[in-house]
Amino acid sequence: MKRSDIEGRPADMWRWHELLPLKRPEDIINLGEVQTPLVALSEASRPKGFCAPLVKDEGRLPTGSFKARGLVMAVSMANAFGIKRVVIPTNGNAGAAMAAYASHVGMESFCFCPEDTPEVNVREIALQGAKVWRFNGLINEAGKMIVAGKEPLGWFDVSTLKEPYRIEGKKTMGLELAAQFDWSLPDVVFYPTGGGTGLIGMWKAWQELLELGWITGKLPRLVAVQASTCAPIVRAYDQGATHAEPWVNAHTVASGIRVPAAIGDFLMLNAIRESNGFALAVEDADILAAVSHVAQRDGFLLCPEGAATYVAYRTAAERGMISPTDKVILFNCATGLKYPMPASDARIDIKSGPVDIVDIVNKY
Ligand SMILES: Cc1ncc(COP(=O)(O)O)c(C=O)c1O
Question: Cα of 254 to ligand 1 centre, how many Å?
Answer without folding.
Answer: 9
